[in-house]
Amino acid sequence: MHQVADIEVAKNIMDANKRLADKNLKHLEEKDIFCVDFVGAIGSGKTTLIEEIIDNTDYNIGVLAGDVISKFDAERIESHNVPVAGLNTGKECHLDAHLVHHGLHDLPLDDLDMVIIENVGNLICPVDFELGSHMRIVVVSVTEGDDTVEKHPIIFQTSDVIVINKIDLADAVGADIDKMVADAKKLNPNVHVITSNLKDGKGLDEIIQVIQDKKDSL
Amino acid sequence: MHELSMAQGILNAVIDTAESNNATEVTEVTIELGRLAMINPEQLKFILGVLVENTIVQDAEIIFEEIPVEVECSQCEFHGNAILDDKDHYAPMVKCPECDSLAVEILNGRDIVVKNIVIEKPDDN
């Protein structure tokens, strides 16, 4: 004979990541390090923005470069003479706190005051995975189409700063920059929206300033 | 897009609990899915169906329950369940039900929880 039993499991599948994200943040704060993570689609300009921040600030920056194959971005960033740890996700579509935890151990944290995390190019999956950063910046380029912001509401609603990049190409691809800015502000009325053209440096000072302001506010 | 790793996490939790309760079979699994988790229930069910093959979970009925989205509005200070405007999106926009603002802090509705399982096990005698 068998008996039937109803068993409570109450296991939150997201908890393990959240706990590790909290641990990452605590670890960074013990070392007095500010952490910002960049999300955005493939080709939005995340790596270029990180390179510009490295070249135009005096922070002691270390970078965690995440990608399905991370060596390409990691090599680019390394050429700016900062420590870089590549985080290969293989087939996964996002970084998680576990990978970041390992990456942090590969950086010389005692020499740093800022860690920048570059997530995998994806506007969907990273939403589910906190990493332990103080600030999340989403980068979207006009070349992705001017409906990209309204098509991906949650990542824009939950980020601290929205950078609309490659605005010099808007006319060429028929993108309406004002619509993208309006969509971003509608989704996230309190967010900083910054338009940029990183090849000419437009918007860079403003991006660096909001990072500094957030760092100062902690 | 990350349904596979989520499904594996769910299955591990189910099998761990089932085995520690001496189950011979799992007949029902109830999963709470946050409305804002970037997971499609249909895809999750499909992947789970593949992963459970040849396990004690293979004949279980998978039941999804929705976790509503709880917010705090920064405009009018409303605290409670949000309105979800999902006419154009599976991933909906989250609004305050009092003042219609999108300036809300999301407090709940992003989790994936294995709530309970129904198992068969040998009689104690």
What does this structure look like?
The complex is a heterodimer of chains A (218) and B (125). Helices cover 37% and strands 23% of the residues of chain A. The longest helix of chain A has 16 residues, at 15-30. Chain A has helices at 15-30, 46-55, 71-78, 97-105, 148-151, 153-157, 170-173, 177-187, 204-217, and strands spanning 2-12, 34-40, 61-67, 84-88, 114-118, 135-141, 161-165, 192-195. Chain A has nine helices and eight strands. Chain A is an alpha/beta fold and 218 residues long. In chain B, the strands form three sheets. Chain B has a three-stranded mixed β-sheet with strand order 2-1-8, with helices on one face. The longest helix of chain B has 18 residues, at 3-20. Chain B contains two helices and eight strands. Chain B folds into two domains: 1-68 and 109-125, 2-Layer Sandwich (hypothetical protein PF0899 fold); 69-108, no CATH class. Chain B is elongated and about 55 Å long. In chain B, strand 1, helix 2 and strand 2 (61-67) form a beta-alpha-beta unit. The A-B interface holds A 1-16, 92-94, 122, 124-125, 127-128, 150-154, 157-158, 186-190 and B 1-2, 5-6, 9-10, 13-14, 17-18, 21, 23-24, 27, 36-39, 74-75, 88-89, 91-94, 101-103, 106, 110-124. Strand 1 of chain A pairs antiparallel with strand 8 of chain B, so a sheet runs across the interface.
List the helices and strands and how they pair.
The complex is a heterodimer of chains A (218) and B (125).
Chain A: E1 2-12, H1 15-30, E2 34-40, H2 46-55, E3 61-67, H3 71-78, E4 84-88, H4 97-105, E5 114-118, E6 135-141, H5 148-151, H6 153-157, E7 161-165, H7 170-173, H8 177-187, E8 192-195, H9 204-217
Parallel strand pairs in A: 2-5, 2-6, 3-4, 3-5, 6-7, 7-8
Chain B: H1 3-20, E1 25-34, H2 41-51, E2 61-67, E3 70-73, E4 79-81, E5 83-85, E6 93-95, E7 104-108, E8 112-122
